[in-house]
Amino acid sequence: HVLQMLNLSLLNMPEPSDSERPKTYVPRNPYPTPSSFPQTPASVFDAPAVFEKFDVDTLFFIFYYQQGTYQQYLAARELKKQSWRYHKKYLTWFQRHEEPKVTADEYEQGTYVYFDYETGWCQRIKSEFTFEYGFLE
Amino acid sequence: VDGELDAAGLRAREQVLPLWLEWLGIYQQQNQSDKAYAAYLNTLHQNGWMRHNERGEHFLRISCHAALSAATDAATTDAAAKPAIAFAPLDAFSKLILLLIKSVPAETADGARPKVQLQLLTRVLSVTIHHLIRQHQAMQYEQRPHAFNQRAYLRLFGSWLFDLNAPDPALDAIQPQILYAFCSAFNALKPSRLPGFAFAWLELVSHRMFMPKLLLLKGHKGWPLLQQLLVNGLFAFLQPFLAAAELSPPVRVLYRGALRVLLVLLHDFPEFLCDYHFFFCDAIPPSCIQMRNLILSAFPRNMRLPDPFTPNLKVDLLPEIAQPPRILAPFSNALARNGFLHELDAFLTNHSPYSFLRELRGHVQNADGTHKAGVISALVLHVGAHAIASMQSTHAASAGLAHSAHMEIYQQLTADLNAEGRYLFLNAIANQLRYPNNQTHYFSCVLLYLFSEAADERVQEQITRVLVERLIVHRPHPWGLLITFIELIKNPRYSFWSKTFTRCAPEIERLFESVARSCM
Amino acid sequence: LGTDLTTLGLNLNSSDCLYATFASPWADAPAQCDPEFNLPQCYYM
Asked: Any residues with CB less than 8 A from the CB of B422 and at least 6 apart, and which?
């Protein structure tokens, strides 16, 4: 009897699609683009290796415009690999322009490059800046 | 569900179905919005459908039934074809439940929010389990093969495992209770109870959002739960089928599936297999040699195994060889349950009375002459653990082996048991030949000592068989097994190659030569 | 004589955990899935 049940169970053998996540990529404010345009991100953007090829501007674009996605995660990871550090108060990325003048337990001080995503969408130099480690993500 | 609804339930049904269809519409909109979700959930809360009462129960049962019916009604009528499944209603229902759990108001009375969330999850799981069991019974007893489709429930439970176990601040307060709730659910759905759900069950228990999470819980809190699911749920069910020589197609598929799950555990969580090896070896039939080897090959990740083929490897000088393995199975309980633990310990301590030795066989045999494999395993391990402890306390290392009470028990069993009983006994010893630890070393010496002291060459042949049948199957091979066999064939003390059974047939002779070559 | 366990579709030599891409006990290949990732709250604008 049990074997008969098992045979029936084999008939309804689970399939890979049964446990795939429904692809829930939902554009926040969908713009009516021609259907020939890709409607979901290409799977190539799921590969971490491809992010090493992007220039920093592209990584910032993905970071700020693909919020909450795996791509944002990969962009942040690549930025960190390129010695950028995310500041949790200014919500932007900093990179040492030179060795810091002062290094203490709680902070470091010196000249940094940071990414201005709000006004210029460009990198700017900031001297005499104190980077408090409490704001380091 | 209709058959089980009373008048109030039927009235509720008239109200719930439109609500369910409304939700389905919202869910299937192209650009779903949080606003639409919030408005719908608000409606449910305001109309009392979310309370923990009969009305709330009706809502869950009727919407669960509606989702599952819509998903499987799409099934074909062709009995031979595989019934199709519509995922949308199932994904809609699982999403609704996720939102209901996450939307339990934060200001719920006196911090009871986690409790209310867990209560809701438990109610949903029990409604789904109730539905599953009833449909399974319809398939089982009403000869309606398509009444039950495991894939629909797999989809539901799988979605919840993804959504509820993903890192999410809104759910952190009810972890690991969420995992425990799924453990209870999967225990209730185990294959021995619902064989028609067996494949989905193993997929859920080994799910990447469940099994690893359970094993990664702090303090190994999830280890006993997974051990219970695998041993009582899977291996206890498979045991009678695997003991048969021929595996039926569904059992073969389940067996291969179990091998994959064990390989993931061997690769990612070897310590789990190490600590629970006794439970697994007890549950896996002796005929499943490779599966058992897989479990016995596990070793702690921080350990570097010395190459067993190193010429003149001094096993007894290895630092790890003095370390005791961790064994989480209360293996002596089986002896107490069979009423002779106390006498056994008395004999081990006082080396008397000798009458106890003669009664041993009776303790490990059933009335019909078959043997209590679990009791034999427990006896072997209990005596060995006792021997190691007493050797360590008296610091009499190898001297303690020969004329000890412990060895007399092993030799008595070797002499008294028939071939089947002795095979189980020797297997119980070979099941302790694992990674370098003091039990592997002790039992390796015991096996070799029994071989060298055996008066009857058939015993030596059987000891050899127990080792060789574990070596000729595909890898992996436990480290302790390899070093024991290499010692047996290399050390002139055992004059292995002079034994007639090594040349009893041309293919046997070739087998020994090939195994010897691979070992050299 | 058992099964050649290297043919069950699991990359046993992988230095990464197998469970993260374990598709199912019936699958002959790892799952193609978004690995689990966690975005700190401060990344959200």
From this structure: B413, B414, B459, B462
